[in-house]
From TrEMBL, chain B:
InterPro entries: Diverse_substr_monoxygenases, Luciferase-like_dom, Luciferase-like_sf, NTA_MOA. FMN binds at residues 46, 74. This is LLM class flavin-dependent oxidoreductase. GO terms for molecular function: monooxygenase activity; oxidoreductase activity, acting on paired donors, with incorporation or reduction of molecular oxygen. Keywords: Flavoprotein, FMN, Monooxygenase, Oxidoreductase.
Length: 388, 371
């Protein structure tokens, strides 16, 4: 491995920013990247065997990524031609799959997208606390947006009664869900004593004792997205001020659509600017830009490989130019890092890890080894304060 | 290989519960030990009020660290979503390469109900009726995707299915997901499932049929039923009852394995079994039949019971798994193997193969023709 060179001084004499964070989103059939593949006739999605998932996770860990994100799917989307979408092989239930991936990785963070509509706070809190224990402090929960309304056809009718009127705030129920889950996580003291919890609110009325001791991270890392396409709902509303406010209130990591550096800086500053209102510091939340990339030996080759995609790629070029572009993006304050959606075929992430990560390390922009005991520590997030 | 007495080979399962263990290595260690002993499967009990981690999650963590032993967590059906339960069990089967089972259970207490705040505690018979419907819906959802659908390697275009006797391979035009449109008394699911088709087709469904409310569900939907009894005659009577009920539901009784459930305390080492144990059978306690003695006498008891044909095997719950499981493997199992009553290696790779259960046909798949 190349010995990393010291970080270059940032433009304008500012102190060098903290190294970037990298995560990978396991591609789903409805990702823009995969849709592009459908047009070229390439297979869609990750091959649906556990070995392929394990290989992707190991590659991400080899590349010293912060975490891997798996999404849940609550309903198969139908398309005009074949009845159901291209994801014909199915997607594993994410939390179960992550527990298995915990066995084949040692440091990689393990994040699952789970919505709050068709599950109850206690079950969700128990599941993520379990994952946090079994992975040694690597669990993360992506609080997915409101599920596809038709997914309700697969769930009980009496689930989570919505007692809110039309005046309810957009995320009132989700916010109460997250708060209730945190109360379950906090029901064990850091010293390992279990105490009864009771939550009575507008949407949830629950009480009891958690069976799971306080997990290594205290609370799993909480992720929220301002970009509906990483969720299960393709038609979710566009990012709004309420979205940002909610993310600033509850999230440790926020996923945002990739934008130009100038637009990214505005969004980044907007989200971070809302933290103070919740008594949080600038570094208590990380903004990751949801990015795609296409590599080539030359710029021309990369452009050729990128041609035909419906959505523009975030970074197209040689490993050198992509590394430089990503580094500049983070240094300029447009994000704290990236959630990458690699080309779904095997080797998509390998190419990035083998060719781009070393260049990022040479630039002093990315870690050269894992440090810190938990995902929370590796993301530079504070340990949650216990609220017993 | 045929057992000397002409009966089928014994099936052995072990409970590996360690409620205080919150770390993966402790659980992996016991599962590997059971695998070394050739056990058909291990079970991990669960309830939302039981101290400890989520059982299915623990066994998903154990799966990549083991290769052959079946993995059977308890998953309750009362406060959970049937659609999620089936997806989680299917995913356990998927990460383990076809070694998943599911011990179906219900939540009868008000304490469990308060954790969810959705329903009050309900009578056991109603909950078991619902559990049966969840088991039914789950199997339909597992069938809602066909074998080999889009299981492919994008680098080579070849099927990635391993040659373990499971149908795999490309099937262009087949593998279309099917709606199930299941309507139960308390829930409905439209389907299809979003999870991959389980490698076993249907992961093995296990029901503890000790509670009489559970017996109808066991007879109708279980692949394995656990039965407590202090004598072979008691176990055999319940087995006959289950077989008759299975037949009444149109099932082949040979599709239902009945295991005698026994708690074992091997803390006394090689001392002779206590009076009332050994050849005389276990002692009935409030927690069910308990064997207390040495591993050799336990092998005698197992061989004697198996010889009567009362059960297809045993589900053993060690009072101290960390201590007793090793004694079971090195003592009891070794002796049963020596006598030709128990396997010395795993000839198959899936839990269904260990249990000698056929892989069920997909109810939605059109075989041999065009759809």
């Amino acid at each position: 491995m190349t010995v990393p060179t010291p970080a270059r001084p940032a433009p304008g004499g500012q102190p060098a920013p903290r190294p970037m964070h990298l995560a990978v989103h396991v591609p789903a059939a409805d990702d823009p990247v995969v849709r592009a593949d459908l047009r070229t006739g390439l297979p869609a999605g990750l091959p649906a065997d556990f070995a392929s998932y394990a290989r992707l996770a190991r590659t991400a860990e080899r590349g010293l990524f912060d975490f891997l994100l798996l999404s849940e799917e609550l309903r198969l989307r139908e398309d005009g031609g074949s009845g159901h979408g291209a994801d014909a092989a199915g997607r594993p239930e994410p939390v179960t799959a992550l527990n298995a991936l915990a066995a084949v990785t040692g440091r990689l963070g393990l994040a699952a997208s789970v919505g709050t509509r068709f599950i109850e706070p206690y079950e969700l809190a128990r599941g993520f606390a379990t994952l946090d224990h079994l992975s040694g402090g690597r669990a993360a929960w992506h609080v997915a947006h409101a599920a596809d309304p038709l997914a309700g056809e697969n769930f009980r009718d009496d689930v989570s009664p919505d007692r809110s009127g039309p005046s309810a705030a957009p995320f009132a129920r989700t916010a109460e869900f997250v708060a209730a889950a945190r109360e379950v996580w906090d029901s064990w003291t850091p010293d390992g004593v279990s105490r009864p919890f009771a939550h009575r609110g507008r949407y949830f009325d629950i009480a009891g004792e958690s069976t799971v001791a306080r997990s290594p991270q205290g609370h799993p890392v909480v992720i929220r997205s301002l970009d509906a396409t990483v969720d299960t709902a393709p038609d979710a509303a566009q990012d709004t001020a309420e979205d940002r406010e909610f993310a600033a209130a509850v999230a440790d990591v926020v996923l945002v659509p990739h934008r130009t550096p100038a637009a990214g800086r505005v969004l980044h500053a907007d989200v971070k600017g809302r933290l103070a209102g919740y008594g949080r510091d600038h570094d208590d939340l990380k903004v990751l830009s949801r990015a795609t990339f296409v590599l080539g030996d030359t710029i021309a080759e990369a452009r050729e490989r990128a041609a035909g995609a419906a959505d523009p790629w975030s970074f197209v070029g040689t490993p050198e130019s992509v590394a430089a572009g990503m580094d500049d993006f983070v240094r300029s304050g447009a994000a704290d890092g990236f959630l990458l959606a690699p080309h779904p075929g095997p080797g998509g992430l390998d190419e990035f890890v083998d060719r781009v990560v070393p260049l990022l390390q040479e630039r002093g922009a990315f870690r050269t080894r894992y440090t810190g005991a938990t995902l929370r520590a590796r993301l530079g997030l504070p340990h949650p304060v216990w609220k017993g | 290989m045929t057992a000397p007495n002409g009966r089928g080979l014994l099936h052995l399962a072990a409970a590996v519960d360690q409620r205080a263990a919150h770390d993966a290595p402790a659980h992996v260690e016991l599962a590997r030990l059971a695998e070394r002993g050739g056990f058909d499967f291990v079970t991990l009990d669960d309830a939302f009020t039981r101290p400890g981690l989520d059982a299915l999650a623990v066994l998903a963590r154990v799966a990549p660290a083991t290769t052959r032993v079946g993995l059977v967590p308890t998953v309750t059906t009362t406060h959970t979503e049937p659609f999620r339960v089936q997806a989680a069990v299917a995913t356990l089967d998927w990460v383990s390469g076809g070694r998943a089972g599911w011990c179906i259970d219900v939540s009868t207490t008000e304490g469990e109900a308060r954790l969810f705040g959705r329903r009050h505690a309900a009578p056991a018979d109603a909950l078991w009726r619902e559990a049966g419907q969840v088991a039914d819906a789950a199997a339909r959802l597992w069938d809602s995707r066909e074998d080999g659908a889009a299981v492919r390697d994008t680098a080579t275009g070849r099927s990635t299915g391993r040659s373990t006797g499971r149908p795999t391979g490309r099937s262009a035009g087949r593998g279309r997901p099917h709606r199930v449109d299941f309507r139960g008394d308390t829930f409905a699911v439209r389907g299809p499932s979003t999870a991959p088709r389980p490698p076993q087709g249907h992961p093995v469904r296990v029901v503890d049929a000790t509670d009489r409310h559970a017996r109808a569900t066991a007879a109708r939907y279980a692949d394995v039923a656990l039965v407590q009894g202090a004598t072979p005659a008691q176990v055999g009577a319940v087995r006959a009852q289950l077989h008759a009920a299975a037949l009444a539901h149109g099932r082949d009784p040979d599709e239902l394995r009945v295991l005698a459930a026994l708690t074992v305390d091997l803390g006394d080492g090689e001392r002779a079994a206590e009076r009332g144990h050994g050849g005389g059978g276990p002692r009935q306690t409030a927690q069910g039949p308990l064997y207390r003695g040495g591993p050799v006498d336990l092998a005698e008891l197992i061989a004697a019971w198996h010889g009567t044909g009362a059960a297809d095997g045993f589900h053993l719950t060690p009072v101290e798994p960390g201590r007793d499981l090793e004694r079971l493997v090195n003592g009891t199992v070794a002796l049963l193997q020596h006598r030709g009553l128990f396997r010395t290696f795993y000839p198959g790779s899936t839990l269904r193969e260990h249990l000698g259960l056929a892989r069920p046909a997909n109810r939605y798949a059109v075989t041999g023709g065009t759809s």
